[in-house]
Amino acid sequence: PGVCYFGPSCSQRGIGGPLTGYRPYRLPEEFRRERKSEEERESMTTIRRFSCNDLLHFASVNLDHLTETFNMSFYMTYMARWPDYFHVAKAPGGHIMGYIMGKVEGQGESWHGHVTAVTVAPEYRRQQLAKKLMNLLEEISDKIDKAYFVDLFVRASNTPAIKMYEKLDYIVYRRVLRYYSGEEDGLDMRKALSRDVEKKSIIPLKRSVTPDELEYD
Question: What residue ranges define each of the domains in the chain, with the CATH number in brackets?
Fold first, then answer.
């Protein structure tokens, strides 16, 4: 890349073979630097707060059958009540790469950050984007809201997601029976934050629970 050859083509010379008598011309340094900077910009990802306008463009990210989807009023409520927990990742061209939606809730030692949804479009996976979004929500929960832990729910059958969360230091705290539609069980996974010095929040329960037992008020 960046090298051009002046002189007749092989077809003009009649027979293929190495060019002789012609020296390569290399693009000036400033042009190569400009090309490199353009490539770097193309690889940049912007992560910012989710906006109302994003609601019109994020449908393609939700096409994964394992991604939980909600009605518009649900997303609007999160934007209004927990704007610091609702972020979108965008590619340089403006395409939505993924998003994370969450909240903070509970009382006492149950005060925690919660990941309601995190998803990345198929074409942008394997770029550590989900990890970046999760780290952002954890940082806000830990440093700003002083939560004890972050939790999330995942389908018991969603092995790839479970493995990803485990790599991010989440543990299965408890199984929630028939948490999802279709009566599929959910796993409540947790990660202790700095305020939970003794890591009490991630001591696994020995029994399964039902959805009506999930209270943080």
Answer: 1-43 (no CATH), 45-213 (3.40.630.30)
